Queue: 2 jobs
Job 1
Amino acid sequence: MSNILVERCGVYNLLKICDIILLKEGMNEMKIAVCYLSSLFLILLLPLSVTAEVKEVKAMVKDIHWLGHDTFKVVGEKVVYTDPFKIKKKDTADIILITHEHYDHCSPEDVKKIQGPNTVIIATSDCAKKLSGKIKIVKPGDKINVEGIEIEAVPSYNTDKPFHPKANGWVGYIFTAKGQRIYIAGDTDYIPEMKNFKVDIALLPVSGTYVMTADEAVKAALDIRPKLAIPMHYGSIVGSEKDAKRFAEGLKGKIEVVILQEE
Ligand SMILES: [Zn+2]
């Protein structure tokens, strides 16, 4: 049996492949032993590595604080805030990510509450006009590195409502914290680009009206396939915890969902 076949046998982790190969190439005790043992080894090890990955992602959740609506404080190598709105406690962010210009996402008075002299704000151009300080303007598709943190601006728009037209160039973000790729979707519907996102943790809107409904967010999550999803965009302008629960219910047994308590 060639090395490639041995490797395939192991990688695909299927004893059946061994049977096919062995039948095709002729039985020989050595081949049988190598094939079955490598399969067995992977069968035993794979669940362990998957469990370790899930543990890492779950450990990150304690560093993700939901401050209501689309406002999160993520504490990784840097302190990252998303769409600061109705900020209750003064703080200093290293990085502020703002998805678009609407008042409940781009709020100059809330930005001031968490902005220090070194805070870097990443925003779309229409929001940037309302702010001052260290600002980087982004559009969908941009990839930047801010103080060692990888940040991608990704498309975020409505498909069946007029509030967030694709032409506005508004964004969601995928950024890295403690090795996890975290996606904050912004005000978006379920869009085809989502299936190309590589994400560990997805923060998805679920309220409907201006964004996806909980059911649409379930479809989005199944396309994005994060290791963990957190519902957002409810409890403030539109939507309630019912939407978050419906979202969790829809993904039961498929994708881990954590409903965060507002802090
Ligand atoms: Zn909006």
Job 2
Amino acid sequence: MINIISIILGRGKHIKAISVEEYIQLRAKLEPNINIARLRSSVQKAIRDKLEGYRCRHCRGELWAVGAVITEDHLCDECMGLEPGSEYDVEFDVVLEKVY
Ligand SMILES: [Zn+2]
């Protein structure tokens, strides 16, 4: 779980947008046995929850939809255990357009 986060996160200044299809392809490349149909429905659920206004259940911060897919939980990036100093996150492009 954690190494997936560290692979798709990087070092930079801004939140990086990723499309749902790019994300699914990335996960499929990292985990060849992943169930794509199940992954797609987790992605859709995470995006729907984010757009419906779910927040981090721990600190009430902004829910991180990409992380919510990975952990199947409603948490922000910091409560998910990422270093507070991480300089950027990836987030779904549809989320960035509608929420930020
Ligand atoms: Zn939080």
